[in-house]
Amino acid sequence: DTEVTQTPKHLVMGMTNKKSLKCEQHMGHRAMYWYKQKAKKPPELMFVYSYEKLSINESVPSRFSPECPNSSLLNLHLHALQPEDSALYLCASSQMGQGGSPLHFGNGTRLTVT
Amino acid sequence: QQPVQSPQAVILREGEDAVINCSSSKALYSVHWYRQKHGEAPVFLMILLKGGEQKGHDKISASFNEKKQQSSLYLTASQLSYSGTYFCGTDYNYGQNFVFGPGTRLSVLP
To answer: Is the dihedral of CA A96, A99, A104, A106 positive or negative?
Structure first.
């Protein structure tokens, strides 16, 4: 069982819709991440929150908007997405910043944009 | 800067050994190894920090050659459950530039 929980597991949305992905961890980790993964590719970093503050934004389009309401929760708000945004979106957490401690991944949300 | 992994894919029979390599052109602070099965999330295997250490558990171990900026993952007496895509992740700037390699697809056949 994963200790990082993501909802929903699957999401289909139109290009004009607004939706949110949710992530929760109760391991006391202070760093949380959003990754995007296309088929047969490695996870690609989107955002990093460290101590509830956005520390890294990898030049992600503004149609993706992250939010960290508290140390256990991470949201990704989606608006006016494009079909090429269809992918597996993974949330992860780590005790320290990335590089220094293991990443614990959730099972992901498989997003399809129609 | 994305690390290079080799081979891209490998097919084994149960019980055979495999080595997966990960190399970087920059001096590394840490190397991570993850395994991802089809349709699942990546699962952490081990982390090696600057210092050239070797780690392992069960029949999976890894080494980190700081001078060569290279890490190798060793899978011995492979089992069917070892099948999946193995990603290394490297960091050369104390957490500011962590990036995954392209992956090595491992298939273990009975």
So the answer is: positive
- From the list A41, A42, A98, which residue is nearest B91 (CB)? A98
Pairing of strands B9-13, B104-109: parallel
Instruction: Give the start-end residues of each E strand in chain A.
Output: 4-7, 10-13, 18-25, 31-37, 44-50, 53-57, 64-70, 73-79, 87-94, 104-105, 109-113
**Nearest to A92, CA basis, from A41, A11, A39, A37:** A37
Query: Above 60 in pLDDT, residue B66?
Result: yes
Q: Quick check: B95 pLDDT over 70? A: no
Q: How far apart are CA A54 and CA A56, in angstroms?
A: 6
State whether residue B40 sits within 8 Å of chain A by CB. yes
The SS3 of residue A46 is strand
